[in-house]
Amino acid sequence: MKQPIPLHKGHVPFARFLMALVAGIAVSYVYVPNRSLYLIVCGVLISSVITFASLILLTRLRRQRYYGAMGFLVFAALFATGAVLTWQTHPEIDQQHFSHGRYRALIGSIADEPVVRSGYIRFPLEISQAYGADTLTDVRGKLMLTVTMHDSLSQSFNYGDELVIPATYDDVPPPYNPSEMDYQRYLANKNCWHRAYLSSNEVQRIGTGKGSWLMAYALMLRRQLVGKFEQYLLDKDALSVASTLILGYRADLSDELLQAFSNTGTIHVLSVSGMHVVIVFWMFSRLLGWMNHGRKLRVGKFTILVTAVWSYAALTGFSPSVLRAATMITFVIAASTFSQQNRIYNSISASAFFLLLYNPKFIVDIGFQLSYLAVLGIVFLMPIWKAAFQTDYRLIKPISDYVGMSVSAQTSAGPLAAYYFHQFPLYFLLANLFIVLPASGIMYIGFILLILPSGIVASVAGEILERLILIVKSGLHYIEQLPGATIRGICLTGWDCLLIYMCLFAGAMAAVNRSKQWFYAAFMFVCMLVVFSFIANFQKLNRHEAIIFNVRQKLSIGLMDGGEAWVYSDLGSLDDRTMRYAVLPELEAYTSADKIHFVPSDSSYRSDRIYIKDQILQFGNLRLMVYDGEKTYGGKFETDILLIRNNPSISLTELVKNIRCKQLVVDGSNYSSTINRLLSEAKIAAIPIYVLKDNFAYRYRITD
């Protein structure tokens, strides 16, 4: 078997530029930004550019001995550019950031489409000015604003609205529980380091239309198109799928529907990406097929196609995956129009290069990473699939090609998806084969419905679209319920993920080149992965730990032993939103969902390893007591950990006369005054104390 796509470094110049830029961005994430380091990197960038320009002027590119030095300067400049672009918006670097001053009020405009939820609305606010003691100052920065909506008469907010708010904001806190989503890092990657919670009567709108006119028009048009779907699609799930799949509007997707797509490996269908952009390109390309003759007509077709693709990208909100697809298709259209050879790896590298120049923080966006991995997998592995499964049957070939495309995309993106989401859809191939034609049909019928004027024909199209979506929904729910449909509790480290990709690459190269060296390398990576997995599983089975999670005013205690986990909580059930966000990620990383047991805090429980009664937990040789002052205890009682909740009035001095403890834990249900009192009393009594409020979860390793 020959190598599927000849690859030579000279054919992919943008790959080398991309590596230099990515290296600079990566370094900027490793080091905490400070002003001195930023100025040094800026100096490297400026000196590299000046030296490069001087060499061009002096040599006029005629002296080859300087080519190596000039190449080094280009890479140094790109490296420094990556770091500078990533750091420049950080409050430590940006001296005009609003967080550097004390202000009474802030003025800013809504920077993205607001997300509406029951009882509140949330959106990023781009701050432009601030009121000081008696002056108005130009500032910069972004904060995430959550506005509580008291009733239906509360004012609405739209992209581009200019607002005045009181300057009462906080730093975005770090995660307070193990394996919890790092919301602080998530917002920082959107150049947002602060947040504010206000009521609607504290927010005053003073203007409109302050954002990008193109984005404002695209969002307004999308709202109108969603309104047309609402007119013809009566089923709520059908409406949400059509709005999401065609227009990228995800506000009304239910958790159940999202879970069905996620568990079957078809969530990419709901994320407007390459498939959707290709369909738009294909439709317009077919309509404009008559313009293939003559250079002027081809240039006109190029202009219309590029405009259509980027207009659709704007309509769907310019997500990273859409930007990737639109950029790549633009390169392909340009190469075809101007009779240039299109080298696919160079096009992929170029699209990533320009997108990262536009926003270097795309590099940590999960959608961006998965999108490029899927494309690279398809480009690299599909020729191998076609060579291994050759067929000349016209009916079988499209099925074989789609199966190969799904397997290639899942092979390349699956490990990273499992690393992020800790699950893998076992029936992804069946689900993708089932959904490919209906999804395309939904796209085409949806576009037709949006174009049609109101009337009987539009009603028929709406009914067909709704029924097709409900068929897809029923099919995915059926696949989701099949035995072993989803492998959950996958806990991969970064090294595990890297080893899997190295193994896959070495295996593919061994198959392509029939090389023993690559085969031995793949075997070595597999052995390393097996060893690491064995060590991780051994550590899990020997893990005996209790965790008091930080769930604000609520209670959640996790107990882990022998591959099983228990949750003692007042949150209601394992399906509670806070439970899924703060508690379950750590427990599901330890064991499978069917081995996690829920114990309500007002109940008793007994097993061979745990005994719970009257808010006292006996877990092996650990005794933990939850005390809220509602019960009195006669006689002496000893416990390892005493968790104090809900502001008991009794002093710690009086409490320890009856209840002796080795460790005192105070959670977020207590007032600050109560916490300060307990801190003082614990210091006097020489009792170790741990405060959960605004702090990380308390972990206790149990020794046999």
UniProtKB/TrEMBL annotation:
ComEC/Rec2-related protein domain residues: 245-510
InterPro entries noted in UniProt: ComEC_N, Competence_DNA_uptake, DUF4131
Predominant subcellular localization, coarse grouping: membrane
Ranges where the DUF4131 domain occurs: 44-203
Membrane topology: Multi-pass membrane protein
Locations listed in the record: Cell membrane
Residue intervals passing through the bilayer: 12-31, 37-59, 66-87, 267-285, 297-315, 370-389, 486-512, 518-538
A GO CC annotation given for this chain: plasma membrane
Alphabetical keyword list: Cell membrane, Membrane, Transmembrane, Transmembrane helix
Name of protein: Competence protein ComEC
